[in-house]
Amino acid sequence: MFLEFLSRRYWKQFAAIAAVHIITASYGVTVGWPAPIIPLLRSPETPLPSGPVTVDEASWIGSTLCIGGTIGTILFAIIHTYFGKKIALLLTSVPHIILWTLILVGDNVWYIYGARFCSGLTGGGVVSVVPLYIADIADKKIRGTLGSLTIIFINIGLVFIYAAGNYLPYDLIPKIMLVSPVAFIVLVSFLPETPYCLLKKGRLLEAERSLMFYRNISDQQYQTAEFTTEFDELKSFVHTQSTQSRICWADFTTPEAKRGLFIGVFVMALNQFSGIFAILTYAGTILQMSGTGFDPNVALVLVAILNICGNLTSFAIIDRAGRKIMLLLSATGVGLALAVLGAHSYLLTIGYDLQGAEWLPVLALALTLFLGAIGITNIPFFIVPEVMPPKLRSIGSTISGTLLCMFAFVTVKLYPIMMVNIHIYGTVWISSGVCAIAVVIIIFLIPETKGKNLNVQSDSQK
């Protein structure tokens, strides 16, 4: 049945989002790039003529991406608001080209800082534009499935860099990666602007054709009653928005807005303070410090593959199981896995003989990323448009995305410093505690949004 839907009804939505996610996968490469590369940059074999980088410089290499992400989220939110989501998507490739050029020609750590900042600009575009693009074009029956593709493609990039970063020459990776933004520009150029953006500009006929494209309807004579209803709802939704007064403070004080903003801030905080993004960034260093008997290079690839398995699990069942249950299972599992990783590190630090248990850190890390991938790392990116009032959906996504980048800066900057000062066990136990608190909040305060129609005004917004 799923393959039938994919081949007949939904395949253009999947194809369009796959094209968009070329830049997402490329961004995933930059997210994971420090994991295999920072140990190299800190070693005597560093490719930088200026010499090995320090712990503090390594923390800036990781966290500079988040500074760019904060700015990029706001910048691309402005671009898609005034110029449309297609233009905003295409422009995400510009900083991406610059970043790999800087790594290719750079001979000291400042070039890398600049590259990581540009990577953050692209990531800000991915965070602020891609979820809204998906919300615009996706059928509500598969919106969660399509939303899960974002993190899958990020982790495809992670697998590539975790494998290639340890075996390919330092200067070959940027040469390979400069191909991806070119392919992205070519393919996305052929996609129509979203129906929502076209209706906002008053281009009714083009909006209808755009929706027909994404619903795989080749001609007006093949339009179904379901299509007509969907398009009429979308027109009514856009008209209502256009006749509403401009956003003011009172819009943020309604119960629906307060709940939506709380959920948006909460899921983004959980996404980062669970430690998963920092762990992905410094996985190579964590494996080196954890006392595992595995080859860290092989363990990195294994961990990344299991991470994708978690993404695929979420992809397959998210629109049947629902957002809340997946988020709950994810937070619970990540908290327990990090507690185990911390316990192993603690026992090793105080001198216990853990011979025969060298595999445990790799398993705990793999479970952390697998269980994170079924909820914590992907659901925040598409639940925010579902919980925000329609009038505040765009600005709510921007606020949440900006806070995500700020939270990421804090965790990525502090993680390597904390691992030195309070050891791995202290660092991951803090993240485990965050997950424990999150479980309570999810149970009592997070609603289920599976199948919610995003093109219908709530009563409080009419």
From TrEMBL:
The keyword Cytoplasm does not apply. Pfam families: Sugar_tr (PF00083). It comes from the Eukaryota. GO terms for molecular function: transmembrane transporter activity. One of its GO terms (cellular component) is plasma membrane. The keyword Transmembrane applies. It is found in: Cell membrane. InterPro entries: MFS_dom (IPR020846), MFS_sugar_transport-like (IPR005828), MFS_trans_sf (IPR036259), MFS_Trehalose_Transporter (IPR050549), Sugar_transporter_CS (IPR005829). Keywords: Cell membrane, Membrane, Sugar transport, Transmembrane, Transmembrane helix, Transport. Its main location: membrane. SUPFAM superfamilies: MFS general substrate transporter. Residues 1-450 form the Major facilitator superfamily (MFS) profile domain. It is a multi-pass membrane protein. This is MFS domain-containing protein. The lineage of its organism: Eukaryota, Metazoa, Ecdysozoa, Arthropoda, Hexapoda.
